Amino acid sequence: MSAAFLFSHGAVSKLNGIDPAAVQVHAQKINSLGQIAGEYRDASNLLHTFIYDQGVITDLGTFTTPSDLNDRGEVFGEGFQGPHSQPCFIYKNGTFQYLGALGVAAYVNCSARRMNNAGVAIGYVTGSGGPPNANSSGAFLYSDGKLNRFTDLIVPSDELIRDNLSPELLLINDKNEIIAKTVDAGRNVQYYLLTPVDAADSAYYNFEADTQGWSNAGEDILTVSTSTAQKFAGASSLAIQISTGGFGRVAVATPPVPAGRTLTFHIYLPADANMDWIQPFAQEGEAGGWNWHGNWQPLSALQLGAWNTITVQVPDEAQPLNMVGLELYMSQTYSGTVYVDSVSF
Ligand SMILES: [Ca+2]
């Protein structure tokens, strides 16, 4: 017996809600949430980007074309800002952000390629009309609000630089690994896989060598180790492997966190995480009456399959701390791994 593709519950949805006058409707990307980004031409032959999400169409307006859509629902595409300027944009949380050129330029013509689930985008931009030698064109990598010239991110001795080839970036994955293509004067094509070097982890609790005293301080439902499977910075993080439901607590005793500091936690929740809530915390010692300072977060406030940054304020009048850590509560059974990294203060 063989089966054709089985849709969830047999449901097939029609992409209703696009401008009835639309022609040349193209769905370009579908992400793992089932959201779709596409484009169409309106009655005036102008291009629009649309996003389809659970039966609802959002129209991003004229002069926009999508190139990619990530699992955060963010669209990477090309827009329009007056004659001769077609910058790349990232559309997220209902707003456009335009990326511009690499140097000073009057006009921008940008080719959007890909954007991963961390919001790191790659493409190629041509700037023109700027001062001589403005050097405003080239392949770029956009990350954390910064437009980087791609060649600035490559070790100068690498042959990509040495041969003075301009890489056309093709693909990026969620590990920020990039496929680049070069074409030399003889039209010979070469492909490269570029892998990022880990940024150093300068946080006090960076979990680079060991667990730094962090251990299970709650119910017997989890084990604690270091792991390179996920990391916020450096090469490794603290892995909290949960085997069932219940109340979990991982903590480090007598941390040297001074009063008045803000503790910053980076916490990675897997895509299938089902805990009810998590709570990074700091607790004062006996002199401080065991005072508790937590930042309780329901699962709905957190990003899954991603790093979450959560802070805990230690008051100015706090007495020396008894412990710092993370609590998790799962009313249902769960088996999976949560990661903590780069806890600084
Ligand atoms: Ca680390």
Describe what you observe in this structure.
Helix content is 1%, strand content 46%. Strand 11 (138-143) and strand 12 form a beta hairpin. The protein has 2 domains: 8-194, Methylamine Dehydrogenase, Chain H (7 Propeller); 215-344, Galactose-binding domain-like (Jelly Rolls). With 345 residues, it is mainly beta. It contains 1 helix and 26 strands. The strands form 6 sheets. Strands 16, 19, 21, 22, 23 and 25 form a 6-stranded antiparallel beta sheet that branches. It has a 5-stranded antiparallel beta sheet with strand order 17-18-26-20-24, with no helix packed on it. A 4-stranded antiparallel beta sheet has the order 1-2-3-4, with no helix packed on it. It has one helix at residues 159-162, and strands spanning 23-30, 36-41, 47-53, 56-62, 65-69, 75-78, 88-92, 95-98, 107-115, 121-128, 138-143, 146-149, 168-172, 178-183, 189-194, 215-216, 222-227, 237-242, 246-253, 262-269, 277-284, 292-294, 297-298, 306-313, 321-330, 336-344. Bound molecules: calcium ion. The site of calcium ion has 11 residues, from strand 26.
Describe the structure concisely for a colleague.
With 345 residues, this protein is an all-beta fold. The chain has one helix spanning 159-162, and strands spanning 23-30, 36-41, 47-53, 56-62, 65-69, 75-78, 88-92, 95-98, 107-115, 121-128, 138-143, 146-149, 168-172, 178-183, 189-194, 215-216, 222-227, 237-242, 246-253, 262-269, 277-284, 292-294, 297-298, 306-313, 321-330, 336-344.
